Amino acid sequence: MQGKNTPVPNADRSAAMRSRLIACARKLFVANGYAETSTPEIVREAKVTRGALYHHFKDKQDLFCAVVTAEAEALAKSVEKEALAAGQDAMSAGSLAFFQAMSKPGRARLLLIDGPAVLGTQEMARIDAGGGRRTLRDGLSSAASGLEPAELDALADALSAAYDRAALAIAEGHDPDPYVRAMSRLIGSLKSG
Amino acid sequence: MQGKNTPVPNADRSAAMRSRLIACARKLFVANGYAETSTPEIVREAKVTRGALYHHFKDKQDLFCAVVTAEAEALAKSVEKEALAAGQDAMSAGSLAFFQAMSKPGRARLLLIDGPAVLGTQEMARIDAGGGRRTLRDGLSSAASGLEPAELDALADALSAAYDRAALAIAEGHDPDPYVRAMSRLIGSLKSG
DNA sequence: TCAATAAACATGCAGGTTGTATGTATGCAA
DNA sequence: TTGCATACATACAACCTGCATGTTTATTGA
């Protein structure tokens, strides 16, 4: 009858703590932004101490990076799944899947606003690796043929920014319809043009 | 022979101090980013005290807002001037003028990265009022006719984000050529489509 | 010309934040 | 069970922000 409950393996405890911190941090980062969220707030929310946070993450930015990375992975997974389900016309199916996945509260802010500002566009590009831009590039190369690679890359980059802006506008409460139509017009005109 | 030099009018002194603080703040914000720039650093650079800063600006964010506003005005002025000089084909002339004006060091970071993150997209839209998106919308309405207003707005918004992304890529050292061509292809295909 | 007033700026302080150094308890391996 | 590494808590120093309070300088009205 000692206070010794079944011992929790270290690996499990660690993983649980990590995801707990990431979840609580995400909640506050989304609600108040990166700068306005303090580490004391985060650990209060998670009901632990700052020691735990700094044990698992190098610093506040490292924790934010983990949050953003998880978000980017969730986005990619969602889009991939949706786009795969819809067989033909991968372009417009992927487009809709992207908008839908991006409408999850906070996601746009994390990936499109705070992420680039805090981590830099370069690091964000690394995190996104194989994500949206890559898919877009592949789609474009088959749709609009006969561009040299450099221009194809630039076009994919620019268009991906247009998608991002549309997703952000929708996330901020604008009517999705005009944006969805505008983007498909943009893509469509590239094909025929 | 008293130490009384000609008295400096208050208005002049104030204006000088204001622009001095804005210039020094711009330099540091551009070099190190908003969060990593402290008000002590700024006033050290300007060779004054924090008292002066907080006399002229409500807080650090207010100073940053002034920096961004000045930058947006300088950009708009540059583009307007260039675009006006080139007579016909306002669209591609304006495009080139935009890329050129946006290539001024630090401008892209201020207006496209830190600005939206620190001030919010809404405030940034207010600052940009009558700037790029408006011009783009007007250009599009004559080029691609027969869209309803809502879709036109969305299209202008998305395309303006594409321009921004291109400008940012160029500012980060990418070859401008592919981006310039990609954007003109995008605009061009809208016309014919 | 000369007080009186207000504006422009400097200084000092309180509260809060970050990152680290140090302390403690718990799992784990020999 | 003994020793060590891991997981976490506590304590501390440095820093920053914003305000409250001085001090100097221009401006105004008589």
TrEMBL record, chains A, B:
<keyword id="KW-0804">Transcription</keyword>
<dbReference type="InterPro" id="IPR001647">
    <property type="entry name" value="HTH_TetR"/>
</dbReference>
<keyword id="KW-0805">Transcription regulation</keyword>
<dbReference type="Pfam" id="PF00440">
    <property type="entry name" value="TetR_N"/>
</dbReference>
<keyword id="KW-0238">DNA-binding</keyword>
<dbReference type="InterPro" id="IPR050109">
    <property type="entry name" value="HTH-type_TetR-like_transc_reg"/>
</dbReference>
<protein>
    <submittedName>
        <fullName>TetR/AcrR family transcriptional regulator</fullName>
    </submittedName>
</protein>
<feature type="domain" description="HTH tetR-type">
    <location>
        <begin position="15"/>
        <end position="75"/>
    </location>
</feature>
<dbReference type="InterPro" id="IPR009057">
    <property type="entry name" value="Homeodomain-like_sf"/>
</dbReference>
<dbReference type="InterPro" id="IPR049484">
    <property type="entry name" value="Rv0078-like_C"/>
</dbReference>
<dbReference type="Pfam" id="PF21351">
    <property type="entry name" value="TetR_C_41"/>
</dbReference>
<dbReference type="InterPro" id="IPR023772">
    <property type="entry name" value="DNA-bd_HTH_TetR-type_CS"/>
</dbReference>
<feature type="DNA-binding region" description="H-T-H motif">
    <location>
        <begin position="38"/>
        <end position="57"/>
    </location>
</feature>
